[in-house]
Amino acid sequence: PMLGLEVESIDDPAKRLAAFTIAEVMSAEQHPDADRLRVCMVNTGSGDPVQVVCGAPNARAGMKGVFAPAGSYVPGIDLVLKAGNIRGQDSNGMLCSEREMMISDEHDGIIELAADAPVGESFAAYAGLDDPVIEIAITPNRADCLGVRGVARDLAAAGYGTLKPLDTSAHVGSFDSPLRWNIDLDGAEHLAPLVTGI
Question: What's the pTM value of the predicted model, to 2 decimals?
Answer without folding.
Answer: 0.71
